[in-house]
Amino acid sequence: MPPVQHVAQDSSTISKGGPAELQGEELRTLLTEAADVFADYVNGATSDSGKAITEASAQQLLTTLDLGLGETGVGHEGIWQDIGSICDSAAHTWNKGFLFKLFASPTPIGVIGESLTALLNNNSHVYESSPAGTVLEATVGAKLAAMANFPAETAAGLTFP
Description:
Layout: H1 23-46, H2 58-64, H3 75-89, H4 108-120, H5 131-147
């Protein structure tokens, strides 16, 4: 799979503790750039020439990733370089040859769902902290219980990825 390539558009957008009103625009910029990087990664991983597993030693990763982590971080360009290195060395779960006992390939809508979860950063343990998440959890739990023929009046539980 070819390495993920990306050139930063604007080096002034990485969080620096700036005004809160700029966070939405910073998020828009980063998500736009991420969409290109992530779609390129999926296209490479799903191509006929893509591999499910890329061999990389821990030493290679330490050399490739900028782990200096000084007070200023790696900057805008460095983030995309590190993300590209992480993608290049990952198990390519989007590849049609990827099979594993503990997890399966993601789906585009699944990535959107996980992005929403990260965006909201809610914990659905109580209704007040995540009304929609709590209702969804109860509904999914009831549906799973019904599919397993558990009695609705006594079935309860939580789902986890």
